[in-house]
Amino acid sequence: MNAQFKRGIIELCVLSLLIEEDMYGYLIINKLSQHINVNENTIYPILRRLTKEGYFETYLKESREGPSRKYYKMTDKGFKHYLRLRDEWDSFIGGVYHIINQGGKKHEEILERFARRTEETESDGS
Amino acid sequence: MKKFLNDLREELKKQNLTDLEIEDILSDHEEMIQTAIDEGLSEEELAKKFGDPKKIAEDLADLGAKKESPGSGAYESWKSFDPEDTLDVRTEMVDEDIRYRPSDNGKINVLYSGKGTIGQYELTYENKQLFLKAPKRSGIFSFLSRSKALDFIIEVPKDVRITSVFQKSVNGDVKVEDMKTASFELSTVNGDALINKSELGHAKMNGVNGDLHVTDTSMKSLKFSLVNGDLSMSGCDVKEALNVQTVSGDASIKDSTCAECGFHSVSGDIKGEEFYPKKVSLKSVSGDIIIKNKEDRGIEIVRKKSVSGTVDVRVENQE
Known about the structure:
Chain A has helices spanning 3-20, 25-35, 40-52, 76-101, 107-125; strands spanning 23-24, 56-63, 66-74. Chain A has 126 residues and is α+β, with helices and mostly antiparallel strands.
């Protein structure tokens, strides 16, 4: 996948996670990598940039295991940014789904359509 | 973990980040790795999860606070091509500035500078045409392409005949120095053009706000058509027609000559000093053509159509 495109999507995912609750870095990485194929490599720079841009604040909190951890907390500015990205995303992905579903939604549907189309072209040719 | 952190430190240093920034990034990583170890991740899993320090450092460099930037403004070479007898240059830019200058190694060289990602630019050289294109920065999905603009230098050997230079841009500026081209066309919204000591052949510039400054340059013709842009010319020779069309832009012309000067404007003026067109024509609402010369070479007023504008040619012999 195009790197820029992927980064944009991950930015949206990171923001979504922090809408739920404040989290520390490793937890964010862990949660995201459970669902999508990403690693720290991609996530940390995004986390840092969003913090620099004022979308997150950070604070330190003791952990049960010992050392304190840096927690990321969404700011008002972050919420607004998220809403704007979310709208962009919904309208984009909604459009994409509209287009790709025109060919059919499920595998069977698509295969059936393909078989039908093949038949049509064959009978046209004869 | 030690190795990862050490590698990361080295890579971050290469990116010229401040010490403070580096320590902060390292302590974040130390914490994240420690947490991962506490959760029982194996070495292998760790490596997979944390990836390549070099890549992290490069991604971070874009946004980090940099130390002094000795390299800023320095250009790096990107690609070089073996020239043929003629060359056609076409560029499509957004915010990028482009400079044209002669090459001194017999090749066509393209250099760049800035923090953008060079890989996003398209550069081809085929059929005697050099084509450079900037990535699109779309409005709706701007968050997907958070890229910065680069600046470019295009170098062409002097013995290559440039048949045309065509540039489309939004905000990018163009600078041409010591070049010879049979045609030059610039289409811009806000970009400015600076031309010095060149031969442009048929030159055209159109747009909204850009300015054109031409010095010590000869042209076959010049067609300048902008809404608010200004034109300044000095030491120029336009062999055929000089056409200036503006709404409110002004032109200031010094020590220059042309065959016919046509000016079409709402409120812009042409102010000439030692400006010797053979013929002038004016079409305006309130715009004037005012020329002050030392010699009387006879300037013919071909046509004047204006509500309140005038053509005023004065010869002031100071001796």
